[in-house]
Give the backbone structure.
Amino acid sequence: RVTIHLDQHNGYFAAKETLAGLEPGEYEFVVTNKAGKPAGFELRDLVTNERLEIFPLKPGETRSAVVKITANGFRYRCPINPTPWYEVNVGR
């Protein structure tokens, strides 16, 4: 399983790993709220828009989720402290 660490700041995410060249499979998303206020994490299938995961994060909190990612790819954002959608292609 591949782990992807994401730090959420005020209005954007910073990834610790390179998100290029990912292949379909099981991924663990480890998300840390560094925004200093309540935030959240929403993960969706890039093609079908199916919600794969969503959870809130208190300031300073780290949460993780294991998600199966297909060749469709994925996109993520914070639905509470709005950030743009980050789109990631997989297996292309």
